[in-house]
Amino acid sequence: MACGAEFGSVAANDRALRRVPPLLVVSDPKVPGGRRASAAAFTDDSDGSPMSAYLQSVVDCIGLTKEHVVHEKEPGWAVAAIPVETLIAEEQNIERDPITAPPEPHPCDPAHALVRGNKNPKGRRDRIAQVSPLVHIVTKR
Hints:
Layout: E1 15-20, E2 25-27, E3 35-37, E4 51-55, H1 56-61, H2 66-69, E5 78-83, H3 84-89, E6 93-96, E7 112-116, H4 122-130, E8 134-137
Antiparallel strand pairs: 1-4, 1-5, 2-3, 4-7, 5-8, 6-7
């Protein structure tokens, strides 16, 4: 598969793009733009499966943008850019997980990745949130 979307290691200088629902976008006057993702945005899915993200390098390579990550989401949804090197430092493992032939395709499916590791220590999620700026917020649909 093109663009490095095949299974394999993820470069430490890449970024994991995480969709953030409006409820988890919080005000913070200390960050550029005045809003950031809450630490609660960096947990595993409610069904216990690993945290889902999209690799920015693959999104870029397939000619998409950060806006595509929140494709068809309502206003208020955002995209946080998590440095992969931070995930590694916080004892998280990120692995490519391109989605093929899903029942409801998403344009970024080839860039899909999973973040595995214990996310329970709130300090860990806080440190991830602090270095993961919001790079896009849906303002209209």
